[in-house]
TrEMBL record:
Keywords: ATP synthesis, Cell membrane, CF(0), Hydrogen ion transport, Ion transport, Membrane, Transmembrane, Transmembrane helix, Transport. Coiled coil: none annotated. One of its GO terms (cellular component) is plasma membrane. The keyword Transmembrane applies. It comes from Lactobacillus kefiranofaciens. The gene is atpB. It is a multi-pass membrane protein. The chain crosses the membrane at residues 16-37, 75-94, 114-132, 188-207, 213-231. Belongs to the ATPase A chain family. Its main location: membrane. The keyword Transport applies. CDD domains: ATP-synt_Fo_a_6. This is ATP synthase subunit a.
Length: 237
């Protein structure tokens, strides 16, 4: 059974697997952004075109779901970095996993619910912040009683369910993909000698390709829903 390496510091548990994996992907995103944006010119080169396409792509998601211009300006960089960071995290476990015996040191961080819940919490905190800036504390809290006062408990429950669905959808898809890839590579490949080993190889490659697609879709869905939740906080119905 796979285990994550956890250590204690000042009374708190720290998941070394998640820290190492997340740091590697943060460095990868930083390197890609610096590499693509070097030598910015009026007539874009190929690398600059890729960078601008990615930025336009995330800005398109943002503008489709957040109508407030001020919020768009503040969220543009967040949507861009969030998409790239989650995309790289989703793909990591498909191509690289570092294990020592049963201890895992590198895998997809988004295959851990703590990581996806952290992303969801950032989005919800941003939505609260922009909502309060837009309407003030009193006006923001009043929105929980809209359209009628007895909707208050339902609206509060909705905040909690938004947090769970946003985080667990991403976690479930990435975790399931890694589990199936492990089953193909370990259990199926060694189940019946050379025949199953030959059968497992193309299946693993096909599933890796499919997992890249799923990881990309999940990054898109997460950013889209994040912008939807924030957009709802800065607009009146």
């Amino acid at each position: 059974m796979e285990k994550s390496f956890v250590f204690k510091f000042i009374g708190l548990d720290f998941d070394l697997t998640g820290i190492i994996s997340s740091t590697l992907m943060a460095l990868a995103v930083l390197f890609i952004c610096i590499w693509l944006s070097r030598k910015v010119e009026m007539k874009p080169n190929k690398r600059q075109n890729v960078f601008e396409y990615l930025l336009d792509f995330t800005n398109g998601i943002l503008k489709s779901n957040v109508s407030d211009p001020d919020a768009q300006n503040h969220l543009s960089l967040y949507a861009f970095v969030l998409f790239l960071f989650i995309w790289f995290m989703n793909q990591l476990g498909m191509f690289l996993e570092v294990k020592v015996d049963d201890w895992v040191f590198v895998k997809s961080p988004t295959a851990d619910p703590v990581a996806t819940m952290s992303f969801a919490m950032m989005t919800l905190l941003l939505s609260f912040t922009f909502g309060i800036q837009r309407f003030g504390v009193g006006g923001y809290l009043k929105n929980y009683t809209q359209p009628v006062g007895f909707m208050l408990p339902i609206n509060l429950i909705e905040e909690f369910t938004n947090f769970l669905t946003l985080s667990l959808r991403l976690y479930g898809n990435i975790y399931a993909g890694e589990v199936l890839l492990t089953l193909i590579g370990n259990d199926l490949a060694h189940a019946g000698g050379p025949f199953t080993l030959i059968l497992a190889a193309p299946l693993a490659m096909i599933w890796q390709g499919f997992s890249v697609f799923i990881g990309s879709i999940q990054a898109y869905v997460f950013v889209t829903l994040s912008m939807v939740y924030i957009g709802r906080k800065v607009t009146t119905e």
